[in-house]
């Protein structure tokens, strides 16, 4: 019973953090679109602060997923045809979670950095809705990470 409680708490924390990151990223996009010219800001803008907060929440959710997931079961069998379906799902979602995480962090970091006067990327980054896309990736990451966590920690215990 304690393992189900742990699974539930980890999944709930992943979803909460990723949804919070997605909401922050979308609010950052809205704040960035309301600024007169984000490229001429002398101090860190609200969009920069919200985007950085979203990236940090996404990072924490990914760390929780990676820390509390049972990965030793991946290495038990070397032949992919003999792996149970839950392990194949876990393998695919593991790679997908890493890809979404890297892409989301890169998009939010690039878009938010237009609001930091010390680290300027070209202003064109603020016109492509990268923060909103990063926010949507946060929501997708929540689903993929929960699927990965459940698939790796449940399934056929006899194999």
TrEMBL record:
Protein name: Uncharacterized protein LOC120266816 isoform X1
Protein keywords: Membrane, Signal, Transmembrane, Transmembrane helix
Organism superkingdom: Eukaryota
Keyword Membrane belongs to the record: yes
Transmembrane segments: 49-68, 89-110, 130-151
Gene Ontology CC: one annotated term: endomembrane system
Organism per entry: Dioscorea cayennensis subsp. rotundata (White Guinea yam)
Encoding gene, per UniProt annotation: LOC120266816
Subcellular location: Endomembrane system
Recorded family membership: Belongs to the DESIGUAL family.
């Amino acid at each position: 019973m304690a393992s189900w409680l742990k699974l539930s708490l980890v999944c709930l924390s992943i979803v909460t953090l990723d949804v919070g990151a997605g909401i922050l990223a979308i609010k950052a996009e809205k704040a960035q679109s309301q600024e007169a010219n984000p490229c001429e800001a002398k101090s860190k803008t609200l969009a920069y602060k919200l985007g950085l907060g979203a990236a940090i929440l996404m990072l924490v959710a990914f760390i929780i997923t990676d820390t509390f997931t049972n990965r030793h079961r991946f290495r038990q069998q070397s032949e992919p045809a003999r792996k149970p379906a839950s392990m194949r799902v876990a393998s695919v979602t593991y790679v997908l979670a890493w890809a979404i995480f890297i892409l989301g962090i890169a998009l939010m970091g690039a878009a938010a950095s237009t609001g930091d006067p010390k680290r300027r990327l070209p202003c064109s980054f603020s016109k492509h809705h990268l923060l909103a896309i990063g926010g949507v990736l946060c929501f997708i990451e929540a689903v993929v990470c929960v699927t990965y966590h459940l698939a790796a920690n449940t399934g056929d215990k006899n194999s």
